[in-house]
Amino acid sequence: xxxxxxxxxxxxxxxxxxxxxxxxxxxxxxxxxxxxxxxxxxxxxxxxxxxxxxxxxxxxxxxxxxxxxxxxxxxxxxxxxxxxxxxxxxxxxxxxxxxxxxxxxxxxxxxxxxxxxxxxxxxxxxxxxxxxxxxxxxxxxxxxxxxxxxxxxxxxxxxxxxxxxxxxxxxxxxxxxxxxxxxxxxxxxxxxxxxxxxxxxxxxxxxxxxxxxxxxxxxxxxxxxxx
Length: 227
Description:
Elements: H1 2-15, E1 19-27, E2 30-32, E3 35-38, E4 41-50, E5 53-62, E6 71-80, E7 83-92, E8 109-118, E9 123-132, E10 146-156, E11 159-168, E12 182-197, E13 200-211, E14 216-225
Antiparallel strand pairs: 1-4, 1-14, 2-3, 4-5, 5-6, 6-7, 7-8, 8-9, 9-10, 10-11, 11-12, 12-13, 13-14
Protein backbone atom coordinates (compact mmCIF):
# COMPACT_ATOMS: atom_id res chain seq x y z
CA UNK A 1 0.00 0.00 0.00
CA UNK A 2 2.81 2.43 0.92
CA UNK A 3 4.75 1.64 -2.25
CA UNK A 4 1.64 2.20 -4.32
CA UNK A 5 0.97 5.57 -2.69
CA UNK A 6 4.58 6.60 -3.35
CA UNK A 7 4.19 5.74 -7.03
CA UNK A 8 0.99 7.77 -7.24
CA UNK A 9 2.67 10.71 -5.52
CA UNK A 10 5.50 10.67 -8.09
CA UNK A 11 2.94 10.67 -10.91
CA UNK A 12 1.11 13.54 -9.27
CA UNK A 13 4.25 15.71 -9.35
CA UNK A 14 4.61 15.00 -13.04
CA UNK A 15 1.06 15.46 -14.27
CA UNK A 16 -1.09 16.41 -11.26
CA UNK A 17 -3.98 14.15 -12.24
CA UNK A 18 -4.31 12.09 -9.07
CA UNK A 19 -7.77 11.88 -7.51
CA UNK A 20 -8.19 11.36 -3.77
CA UNK A 21 -11.36 10.08 -2.09
CA UNK A 22 -12.12 10.69 1.59
CA UNK A 23 -15.57 9.72 2.84
CA UNK A 24 -17.48 7.99 5.61
CA UNK A 25 -20.87 6.28 5.61
CA UNK A 26 -23.01 5.97 8.71
CA UNK A 27 -25.53 3.12 8.31
CA UNK A 28 -28.34 1.79 10.45
CA UNK A 29 -27.27 -1.78 9.71
CA UNK A 30 -24.28 -3.42 8.03
CA UNK A 31 -25.81 -5.44 5.21
CA UNK A 32 -23.61 -7.08 2.55
CA UNK A 33 -24.49 -9.49 -0.26
CA UNK A 34 -27.50 -10.83 1.61
CA UNK A 35 -25.79 -11.10 4.97
CA UNK A 36 -26.32 -9.12 8.17
CA UNK A 37 -22.85 -8.30 9.55
CA UNK A 38 -23.62 -5.72 12.23
CA UNK A 39 -25.90 -3.03 13.63
CA UNK A 40 -25.28 0.75 13.41
CA UNK A 41 -21.83 1.15 11.82
CA UNK A 42 -19.31 3.75 10.73
CA UNK A 43 -17.70 2.91 7.38
CA UNK A 44 -14.78 5.16 6.31
CA UNK A 45 -13.13 5.21 2.88
CA UNK A 46 -9.71 6.49 1.78
CA UNK A 47 -8.79 6.07 -1.86
CA UNK A 48 -6.41 7.35 -4.49
CA UNK A 49 -6.64 6.94 -8.26
CA UNK A 50 -4.62 7.72 -11.36
CA UNK A 51 -5.43 6.97 -15.03
CA UNK A 52 -7.82 4.12 -14.23
CA UNK A 53 -5.68 2.59 -11.47
CA UNK A 54 -6.87 2.89 -7.88
CA UNK A 55 -5.95 1.88 -4.34
CA UNK A 56 -8.72 2.01 -1.77
CA UNK A 57 -8.90 1.37 1.96
CA UNK A 58 -12.37 0.73 3.40
CA UNK A 59 -13.42 -0.16 6.92
CA UNK A 60 -16.43 -0.85 9.09
CA UNK A 61 -16.82 -0.70 12.85
CA UNK A 62 -19.98 -1.12 14.90
CA UNK A 63 -20.87 1.82 17.11
CA UNK A 64 -23.85 0.31 18.90
CA UNK A 65 -22.66 -3.12 20.05
CA UNK A 66 -19.11 -4.19 21.06
CA UNK A 67 -19.67 -7.57 19.37
CA UNK A 68 -20.31 -6.04 15.92
CA UNK A 69 -18.03 -7.00 13.06
CA UNK A 70 -14.86 -4.97 12.60
CA UNK A 71 -13.51 -4.96 9.07
CA UNK A 72 -10.60 -3.46 7.13
CA UNK A 73 -10.33 -3.97 3.36
CA UNK A 74 -7.68 -3.01 0.81
CA UNK A 75 -8.51 -3.00 -2.91
CA UNK A 76 -6.29 -2.56 -5.95
CA UNK A 77 -8.23 -2.06 -9.17
CA UNK A 78 -8.06 -0.92 -12.78
CA UNK A 79 -10.91 0.37 -14.92
CA UNK A 80 -11.20 1.56 -18.49
CA UNK A 81 -14.46 2.43 -20.18
CA UNK A 82 -17.08 0.17 -18.65
CA UNK A 83 -14.61 -2.62 -17.82
CA UNK A 84 -12.99 -3.07 -14.42
CA UNK A 85 -10.89 -5.68 -12.64
CA UNK A 86 -9.49 -5.79 -9.14
CA UNK A 87 -8.24 -7.69 -6.10
CA UNK A 88 -9.45 -7.14 -2.53
CA UNK A 89 -7.91 -8.20 0.77
CA UNK A 90 -10.76 -8.43 3.30
CA UNK A 91 -9.90 -8.61 6.99
CA UNK A 92 -12.40 -9.34 9.75
CA UNK A 93 -11.76 -9.45 13.50
CA UNK A 94 -12.84 -13.10 13.62
CA UNK A 95 -11.60 -15.82 13.91
CA UNK A 96 -8.24 -14.09 14.52
CA UNK A 97 -8.03 -10.52 15.86
CA UNK A 98 -4.38 -10.18 14.77
CA UNK A 99 -4.23 -8.37 11.43
CA UNK A 100 -0.80 -9.67 10.41
CA UNK A 101 -1.70 -13.35 10.83
CA UNK A 102 -1.58 -14.94 7.38
CA UNK A 103 -0.93 -18.61 8.20
CA UNK A 104 -3.40 -21.13 6.79
CA UNK A 105 -6.22 -22.22 9.11
CA UNK A 106 -5.77 -19.21 11.40
CA UNK A 107 -5.91 -16.09 9.21
CA UNK A 108 -8.91 -13.76 9.16
CA UNK A 109 -7.95 -12.41 5.72
CA UNK A 110 -9.97 -13.33 2.65
CA UNK A 111 -8.53 -12.58 -0.80
CA UNK A 112 -10.98 -11.98 -3.62
CA UNK A 113 -10.66 -11.27 -7.35
CA UNK A 114 -13.39 -9.41 -9.20
CA UNK A 115 -14.20 -8.54 -12.78
CA UNK A 116 -17.13 -6.68 -14.28
CA UNK A 117 -18.53 -4.53 -17.03
CA UNK A 118 -20.90 -1.59 -16.88
CA UNK A 119 -23.06 -1.63 -20.01
CA UNK A 120 -24.88 1.55 -18.95
CA UNK A 121 -28.41 0.28 -18.39
CA UNK A 122 -27.05 -2.78 -16.55
CA UNK A 123 -23.77 -3.57 -14.78
CA UNK A 124 -22.57 -7.16 -14.22
CA UNK A 125 -19.95 -8.14 -11.64
CA UNK A 126 -18.37 -11.47 -10.63
CA UNK A 127 -16.41 -11.99 -7.39
CA UNK A 128 -14.38 -15.10 -6.39
CA UNK A 129 -12.33 -15.84 -3.26
CA UNK A 130 -8.99 -17.41 -4.16
CA UNK A 131 -7.10 -17.55 -0.83
CA UNK A 132 -7.39 -16.98 2.89
CA UNK A 133 -10.28 -17.78 5.20
CA UNK A 134 -12.66 -18.98 2.50
CA UNK A 135 -15.70 -21.17 3.03
CA UNK A 136 -16.10 -24.89 2.30
CA UNK A 137 -18.21 -26.70 -0.26
CA UNK A 138 -20.42 -29.72 0.38
CA UNK A 139 -17.38 -32.04 0.24
CA UNK A 140 -15.45 -30.07 2.85
CA UNK A 141 -12.98 -28.63 0.32
CA UNK A 142 -12.16 -24.97 -0.36
CA UNK A 143 -15.20 -23.57 -2.14
CA UNK A 144 -13.54 -20.70 -4.02
CA UNK A 145 -16.69 -18.91 -2.93
CA UNK A 146 -18.22 -16.73 -5.61
CA UNK A 147 -20.91 -14.12 -5.92
CA UNK A 148 -22.40 -12.59 -9.06
CA UNK A 149 -24.55 -9.46 -9.16
CA UNK A 150 -26.47 -7.45 -11.73
CA UNK A 151 -27.48 -3.86 -11.03
CA UNK A 152 -29.47 -1.27 -12.95
CA UNK A 153 -29.53 2.48 -12.15
CA UNK A 154 -32.46 4.77 -12.89
CA UNK A 155 -33.96 8.08 -11.79
CA UNK A 156 -37.39 8.46 -10.22
CA UNK A 157 -39.07 11.13 -8.10
CA UNK A 158 -35.98 13.30 -7.84
CA UNK A 159 -33.79 10.45 -6.52
CA UNK A 160 -31.07 8.23 -7.95
CA UNK A 161 -32.25 4.62 -7.74
CA UNK A 162 -30.53 1.28 -8.19
CA UNK A 163 -32.13 -2.13 -8.50
CA UNK A 164 -29.87 -5.13 -7.91
CA UNK A 165 -29.98 -8.91 -7.71
CA UNK A 166 -27.16 -11.20 -6.58
CA UNK A 167 -26.60 -14.94 -6.38
CA UNK A 168 -24.14 -17.53 -5.11
CA UNK A 169 -23.53 -19.86 -8.09
CA UNK A 170 -22.43 -22.96 -6.15
CA UNK A 171 -22.19 -24.43 -2.66
CA UNK A 172 -20.19 -22.57 -0.01
CA UNK A 173 -20.36 -21.95 3.72
CA UNK A 174 -19.02 -18.41 3.18
CA UNK A 175 -22.38 -16.98 2.07
CA UNK A 176 -24.91 -18.08 4.65
CA UNK A 177 -24.10 -21.78 4.22
CA UNK A 178 -25.45 -22.00 0.65
CA UNK A 179 -25.70 -25.65 -0.44
CA UNK A 180 -25.84 -24.87 -4.16
CA UNK A 181 -27.04 -22.11 -6.44
CA UNK A 182 -28.89 -19.55 -4.32
CA UNK A 183 -30.27 -16.07 -4.88
CA UNK A 184 -28.99 -14.28 -1.79
CA UNK A 185 -29.80 -10.64 -2.53
CA UNK A 186 -32.61 -8.64 -4.10
CA UNK A 187 -32.47 -4.93 -3.41
CA UNK A 188 -33.79 -1.49 -4.29
CA UNK A 189 -31.80 1.56 -3.19
CA UNK A 190 -32.58 5.29 -3.43
CA UNK A 191 -30.11 8.17 -2.90
CA UNK A 192 -30.82 11.89 -2.64
CA UNK A 193 -28.64 14.87 -1.71
CA UNK A 194 -29.86 16.64 1.42
CA UNK A 195 -28.97 20.33 1.07
CA UNK A 196 -27.49 21.77 4.26
CA UNK A 197 -26.20 25.08 2.87
CA UNK A 198 -25.72 26.52 -0.62
CA UNK A 199 -22.23 25.00 -0.69
CA UNK A 200 -22.72 21.79 1.30
CA UNK A 201 -25.04 18.81 0.94
CA UNK A 202 -25.14 15.30 2.40
CA UNK A 203 -26.11 12.23 0.33
CA UNK A 204 -28.82 10.28 2.16
CA UNK A 205 -29.76 6.76 1.09
CA UNK A 206 -32.23 4.01 1.94
CA UNK A 207 -32.34 0.41 0.77
CA UNK A 208 -34.97 -2.30 0.94
CA UNK A 209 -33.33 -5.70 0.52
CA UNK A 210 -34.13 -9.36 0.95
CA UNK A 211 -32.28 -12.66 0.93
CA UNK A 212 -34.65 -15.22 -0.67
CA UNK A 213 -32.30 -18.06 0.32
CA UNK A 214 -32.57 -17.36 4.06
CA UNK A 215 -36.04 -15.75 3.83
CA UNK A 216 -34.88 -12.57 5.59
CA UNK A 217 -35.61 -8.92 4.72
CA UNK A 218 -33.81 -5.69 5.60
CA UNK A 219 -34.37 -1.93 5.59
CA UNK A 220 -31.14 0.06 5.76
CA UNK A 221 -30.77 3.83 5.88
CA UNK A 222 -27.64 5.95 6.05
CA UNK A 223 -25.79 9.03 4.94
CA UNK A 224 -22.36 9.88 3.49
CA UNK A 225 -19.94 12.49 4.75
CA UNK A 226 -17.29 13.71 2.32
CA UNK A 227 -15.40 16.93 1.51
